[in-house]
Amino acid sequence: MADQDRTESATPKKREEARKRGQVAKSMELSSSLVFLGVVFVLHMTMASSAKYLMEYMSFGLGIPHLTPLDIPEVYHIAMRFLILLFQVVGPLFIGAIIIGIIVNMTQTGFLFSMQALAPDFNKLNPLKGVQRFLSARGLVETLKAVLKLFLIGYIAWNSIYQNYPTMLSVIRMDIPTLLSFIGNLVYQIALKVGLYLFILAAADYAWQRYSFEKSIRMTKEEVKQELKQSEGNPQVRARIRAKMRQIARRRMMESVPKADVVITNPTHFAVALEYKSESMKAPIVSAKGADLIAKRIREIAEENHVPIVQNPTLARTIWKTVDIGREIPSDLYAAVAEVLAYVYRINKRYQRR
User: Fold this and answer.
1) 150-207 pLDDT, tens per residue?
2) Domain tally, the chain
3) In the predicted model, is pLDDT for residue 119 greater than 70?
4) Given pLDDT bands bounded at 50, 70 and 90, which one contains residue 1?
5) H-type helices in 170-329, by residue range?
6) Range with the lowest mean pLDDT among 2-6, 16-20, 137-141, 214-218?
7) β-strands 270-275, 262-265 pairing
8) SS3 at position 44
């Protein structure tokens, strides 16, 4: 399907399905640049202690051949000593890189574990597919990023060495601690500049990845309609259900008309049935109402069940427009409704006397 047809933003369901497949907006460049910067800072802060442990490691290693004899416990002791010294040197860097990597990835994608992403994809082994990926927009962007990174690293290293070239000529006259300090500071400056420039490149890459991801999961109007049908049901079915519910509600409304105390009419267009029980109601309630054919049916049921019908066009129209079924009439209509009920009660007493 042509990309120009995919004009709609992805729905939450489509995003959730993409997430289950491991498809999220994520920049590996951002993760690697921040991990690199973190390692540089950790290395700078632990430089003194790492140099100390490294000297111990080298001294201990150079002294091993003079140890005689070497039995199994001694070999075990030497191996453990090497491992401890090695962890003291590279442990902070390793732990720092893991923690920073986890934090950066969780910030980008949240907690995400997808078995579908781990499934083998044999299309990646197809040379034709590989050429297509390389010549695609994503492949060209990846190639451009690699070239930019090489250019930046090379330029920053050359510029730093060029600026410190006069000092480097005099290193042969420096003592060992001063020489190591100079080299360490130079390497730190180069690494810090490289990390900062890589971070800027990674930020641009993250923006591109988000744009590319949003574009890849866009949907057509037809796909949105189909998803809406699947999630909420077919519109025709929903319409039939609503019609059935209206029929049920109308039947229940008609069943309440025989219990009404009075039906107020327009006389032909509107009909409102009122019920009032003084011992349980604060005010009369609207038990049924309708217009045209429904109003006609309410009048017919009222006549069949000897419910009084009173013609009051203004009151009938007002109640029909302003009061819902099952609600009490508002206080501003108390007087008008009271007159109607009083009239009905007088008629009922006359009928009972007769």
Assistant:
1) 888 888 888 887 887 777 777 667 776 677 777 777 888 888 888 888 888 888 888 8
2) 2
3) no
4) very low
5) 176-216, 221-232, 235-256, 293-304, 313-322
6) 2-6
7) antiparallel
8) helix
Position 12 pLDDT exceeds 50: yes
With respect to residue 17, please indicate whether it lies within any of the assigned structural domains: no
Tokens 């319409």 belong to residue? 239
Q: Which domain holds residue 266?
A: 254-353
Query: Tokens 């066009």 — which residue?
Result: 313
Write the CB contacts of 255 (distance below 8 Å, at least 6 apart in sequence): none
Collect all residues with Cβ–Cβ distance below 8 Å to 348 and sequence separation of at least 6: 308
Residue 174 and residue 263 in one domain = no
Distance of alpha carbon 315 from alpha carbon 312, whole angstroms? 6
On whether residue 159 sits in a domain, the answer given is: yes
End of a domain among 168, 196, 216?
Answer: 216
Please check whether residues 262 and 211 belong to one and the same domain: no
Angle at 319 between CA 318 and CA 325, to 5 degrees: 150
Question: What are 72's two structure tokens?
Answer: 């199994």
